[in-house]
Backbone:
C-alpha cells in the first residue's frame, strides 16, 4: 500500500515520490478498472507515460472504455 508523506496532487511523481513499482502500477490499474467499471488499454503504456498522477489520469481517459 502506498503511504505518501506529502499531499498527493496531479504533479506527484508516481515512481519517485510514491515509490510505485511496475508491479504496483499494474495492481493500481486493475483496482481502478474494478472501481470505475472500465477497461484500460495498457498495451502501449510505458513508464514515461505514468510519470505523474496527471499523466496516469490522462492515459486512463484516453485509453479506457466502459465495461
Residues:
Amino acid at each position: 500500500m502506498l503511504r505518501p508523506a506529502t499531499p498527493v496532487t496531479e504533479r506527484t511523481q508516481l515512481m519517485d515520490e510514491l515509490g510505485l513499482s511496475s508491479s504496483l502500477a499494474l495492481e493500481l490499474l486493475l483496482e481502478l478498472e474494478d472501481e470505475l467499471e472500465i477497461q484500460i488499454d495498457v498495451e502501449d503504456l510505458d513508464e514515461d507515460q505514468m510519470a505523474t498522477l496527471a499523466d496516469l489520469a490522462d492515459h486512463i481517459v484516453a485509453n479506457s472504455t466502459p465495461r
Notes: The mean pLDDT is 88.
